[in-house]
Amino acid sequence: MAACFLQFKKAAHWAEQDLTIKQTAQWYKDSLPNGSKDAWAVKEIDTPWVLPASRAWPRGETLSEQEFNLQMINTGNEYFQQCWRQEKSILDFWHKSKKPAWWTNAQWINIYVDDKKLYKNLVFTKLFEYNPTTKIIISHDQKPTTGRQVNRLKKSIFNNQWIWENVSDLETFFDQQVKNLPWYQSWNFDTIPTKNYITLTELFDVDKVYQFLLNYEEQMNQRVDRNYVERIHTLWHKSTTERLL
After folding, report:
1. Tens digit of each residue's pLDDT (9 = 90 or more) over 3-13
2. 164 strand-pairing partners
3. N or C: more exposed end of the chain, with fewer CB within 10 A?
């Protein structure tokens, strides 16, 4: 979904430079895992912004809007400052249902998990790699050697667990480990958002994705490019479904 919004010129591009729609499609293609050997979290597109808070862990949730903005001014990179001065939309993501005080004025787009089995499969497809022979699970998302350099530094400081040994099976691991992680516990699976949302299953339907994006044409002052959406969706859908458990 983030890649679909990057077609809009008003959106600050995650490539840290302005790209054409054709260039963005190629940039996105290059970011996808190449076959089953590549871990998704190692190559996946990511924001270039460094937040004074964690998108998945409790750190920074109590910051006020003023404190957050001040830290972004002092620590944000030059590209962020440039996009802010140009009044571009700063596209980001958040892995928790709880909205922090410093983003109350932001516009939220929600993905409602309407299929928990599919959600669980996606968690193991993208976040955790299980080796049934060694009985080891690795979280590439939290591994200190993956991601942007600044994120590697943060992960090495906070030292979140990223490897589990003697894992008997995925069901037990999901129930005993994943469900106890802060980002999972903060997720609201029962309440359907009242607006600005698309369901998890709808993400797999290119027509539903396209129709959803049409809601933002006026705000972004640009028509949605159907061909671009189909190109991005085909790439994502293929990479995702061929890796699902």
Report:
1. 999 999 999 99
2. 137
3. C
Structure confidence by residue, pLDDT tens digits, 180-207:
998 899 888 889 998 999 999 999 999 9
Q: Which two tokens stand for residue 84?
A: 């802010």
For residue 231, CA distances in Å to 4, 21, 146, 202 come to 10, 10, 27, 17
What's the pLDDT at 148?
A: 62
Pairing of strands 163-164, 197-199: unpaired
Q: How many CA atoms lie within 13 A of 242 on its CB side?
A: 14
Sign of CA dihedral 82, 85, 86, 91: positive
Per-residue burial over 106-145, b if 16 or more Cβ lie within 10 Å, else e, is eeebbebbeeeeeebbbbbbbbbbbeeeeeebbbbbbbbe
* Cβ atoms of 33 and 127 closer than 8 Å: no
Residue 78, C-beta contacts closer than 8 angstroms, at least 6 positions apart:
none
